[in-house]
Design a protein that fits this description.
Elements: H1 2-74, H2 79-84, H3 88-105, E1 109-115, E2 121-124, H4 140-148, E3 152-157, E4 162-172, E5 175-184, H5 187-197, E6 199-206, H6 212-215, E7 221-222, E8 225-228, H7 232-241, E9 250-255, E10 260-271, E11 277-286, H8 288-319
Antiparallel strand pairs: 1-2, 1-5, 3-4, 4-5, 6-8, 6-11, 7-8, 9-10, 10-11
Length: 320
């Protein structure tokens, strides 16, 4: 009788020991997993935060830089007078050297245009043979600058491409005579962060603001936005962001062609002068190394769980 009680007590103790070991192993694996995930999330969150801050800081730097450069351009003796008197050739001769200097120092500067009070193009310094075209009514930053007669900033799609615009009204003898605009490509704001954080990016523009020239190109269009470019990886990402991950600001994506893992973010917005979203930059963070750590943990967890099962089986056979 005593032996039966002892055996029963021993079996109860073994069961309790089994439960403690299993719970302890589960707690250990859960803790390890949480630490790993927290490390991954912290690194990604840090990168996202730095990228957004750097992007916005770059915009502010460009605003200051090109405000100063345009003011310097307009201070050249005879520039305002040539524009006010509508002397296109004289104006071009006065500003072309300065434009070339600015262009050499900043490869992302693509546009410098003088426009009349009705918005029509008087002189494209970057394409002097193209002038006289009427204002596209989608060019709201030009319309607003003519109306408000003050300097405005913002992203906008022009006749040929999307750029960040700095638009400055011009006065001659206290009379408003038109404006000058400069356009800087979005890569100005993403080139540095692309190099630092090993990210890839693509431009997505609001279809409502797409110019005729851009609309002729065969871009993917979905939900009011068009993907600019033909990168096959971003074509896949763009399709997923509008189907499987529609409404999500970020998602994980594995690109089969290069076997790499990415975290995709689509909330880096490009704003016009009225703070409305006219485009977005899709960003793909390469998290292959971080994902490899996660996969290694899963393998280690599987091996650890197997060892625990083997140990418990051996213990059961010996003491049961």
């Amino acid at each position: 009788m005593t032996r039966r009680k002892d055996n029963k007590r021993r079996k109860v103790m073994i069961v309790i020991l089994f439960v403690v070991i299993i719970l302890g192993a589960a707690a250990f694996l859960t803790y390890r997993y949480m630490v790993l995930q927290n490390d991954i999330n912290s690194k990604v969150s840090y990168s996202e935060d730095i990228i957004h801050k750097d992007f916005n800081s770059n915009i502010e730097d460009v605003k200051r830089e090109y405000s100063r450069k345009v003011d310097s351009l307009l201070s050249i003796d005879g520039v305002k007078k040539a524009f006010a008197s509508r002397d296109r050739q004289k104006l071009y001769e006065l500003v072309k050297a300065r434009y070339k200097k600015y262009k050499n120092s900043d490869p992302f500067l693509k546009i410098m245009s003088f426009r009349l009070t009705d918005g029509s193009t008087f002189l494209r310094v970057h394409k002097p043979q193209m002038y006289g075209d009427k204002l596209n009514k989608r060019r709201t930053i030009i319309i607003d600058t003519n109306r408000l007669q003050k300097r405005l900033y913002g992203f906008e799609i022009g006749k040929l491409q999307m750029s960040y615009r700095v638009v400055t009204p011009i006065f001659y003898k206290n009379k408003y005579v038109g404006l000058v605009e400069v356009g800087i490509l979005p890569k100005e704001f993403t080139s540095s962060i692309s190099d630092i954080f090993h990210i890839r990016n693509a431009l997505v523009v609001n279809t409502a603001g797409t110019s005729v020239s851009l609309a002729k190109k065969q871009y993917l269009q979905e939900d009011g936005f068009s993907l600019v470019g033909s990168d096959p990886m971003f074509k896949k990402i763009f399709e997923l962001s509008n189907t499987k991950y529609k409404g999500k600001k970020s998602f994980f994506f594995t690109y089969d062609e290069n076997k790499k893992d990415y975290l995709v973010e689509n909330n880096l917005n490009l704003l016009n002068q009225n703070k409305k979203v006219v485009a977005k930059i899709l960003i793909a963070y390469d998290i292959t190394t971080l994902q490899a750590d996660n996969n290694n943990f899963e393998q280690e967890a599987g091996i650890f769980a197997l060892l625990v099962v083997i140990f418990l089986s051996a213990l059961l056979q010996f003491f049961w």
